[in-house]
Amino acid sequence: MQRIVVLAGGIGGARFLRGLKSAVPDADITVIGNTGDDIHLFGLKVCPDLDTVMYTLGGGIHEEQGWGRAGETFAVKEELAAYGVGPEWFGLGDRDFATHIVRTQMLAAGYPLSAVTEALCARWQPGVRLLPMTDDRVETHVLVDLEGARKAVHFQEYWVRLRAEVPAHAIVPVGAEEAKPAPGVLEALAAADVILFPPSNPVVSVGSILSVPGIREAVAAADAPVVGLSPIVGGSPVRGMADKVLAAVGVESTAAAVARHYGSDLLDGWLVDTVDAQAVAEVEAAGIRCRAVPLMMTDTDATAKMAAEALALAGEVRA
Ligand code: GDP
Ligand code: CA
Is residue 306 within 8 Å of residue 297, measured between CB atoms? Predict the structure, then answer.
């Protein structure tokens, strides 16, 4: 059985995984999920990217929105607001609240996040092994200019409240230096037949995962070919504001620049969209095998074709 390891953020990672499962239903898939977006709200531990993967693969996602639960209601949020308790800018629905309550209760009882995630997945049956990148607390902060001062804000405040509209100067995964990969992460990378970077955010999703000491090294040292898919198509992110965080780390918003940012020490192969076919030569000049194929995840079939192309490229670079 083919062992595939995917380093995933939220929406881009989750949608890609759905296509991957459809392309290779019998593969053994391990997902290393980003937890740098995690935030404590109302005393609860919220893990947006892990939940997006779990809900998407488990059939509970709000399809159009891409995050949160389908058929959601917001009574708890409204009641909290009536007490003047916020933040009002982070949308937690009633169904979603239950997930965070269960998670927080288990963490308080002493279970590590990896065990809690496994317990939550027992309900959702995502059909992949979902591992947090670490059981330790890592929180991405963004250095911004706000109200005349330079200050660090939580990633969610930058992304959701400020909509990435204020200048960002640095992205800091606070706590990463002391964090250890969660149990199973390094073992999965070492045993992988293929490692994939889905079209997730290269800075605050895949970048945060790689910032946990040992993970970048394990990807670089793995026997398996490493193939990524560009989240940047035609010079801008397909969705969201990845261009803003790329700028903050000095990387241009092009498919080729993102490949060079990961570099040939990590990547063996890179897929760009057909509209970026002119980037292939530049990526190959950087020592990374590159192909231009359609990269729009419009539906599961289109996404499955992308996954199949990534696996084909992995086979080619291995040969
Ligand atoms: P987040 O944690 O929810 O922000 O999700 P990820 O980090 O997993 O993915 C976000 C990235 O997915 C964005 O930078 C988007 O450009 C990218 N993305 C979303 N939809 C598509 C798509 O259909 N095709 C490609 N190539 N990228 C996409
Ligand atoms: Ca995210």
Answer: yes
Query: Is 51 a known ligand-binding residue?
Result: yes
Q: Whose CA is closest to 164, among 86, 245, 49, 239?
A: 245
Ligand at shortest distance from the CA of 19: 1
CATH superfamily label, 3-134+178-318: CofD-like domains (3.40.50.10680)
| CA–CA distance, 184 with 115 (Å, rounded to integer) | 11
Name the residue ranges covered by the structural domains of the chain: 3-134+178-318, 139-177
Is residue 23 within 8 Å of 63, Cβ to Cβ? no
Render the burial of 230-244: b for 16+ CB within 10 Å, e for the rest. Answer: bbbbeeebbebbbbb
Atom of ligand 1 nearest to the CA of 242: 14
Cα 205 to ligand 2 centre (Å): 6
Q: What is the pLDDT of residue 67?
A: 96
81: helix, strand or coil: helix
Ligand 1: which residues within 6 Å by Cβ?
Answer: 8-13, 49, 52, 199-201, 205, 230-231, 233, 237-240, 242, 295-297
Q: How far is CA 127 from the centre of its chain?
A: 17
Probe target for ligand 1 pocket from 6, 7, 11, 90, with the most ligand atoms within 8 Å of CB: 11
* Residue spans of the chain under pLDDT 70: none
Please report the pLDDT score of residue 318 as a whole number: 84
Say which residues have a Cβ less than 8 Å from residue 218's Cβ, sequence separation at least 6: 181, 185, 186, 189, 190
Q: Is the pTM of this model over 0.90?
A: yes
Give the rounded distance of the alpha carbon of 245 from its chain centre.
Answer: 14
How much is the pLDDT for 305?
Answer: 98
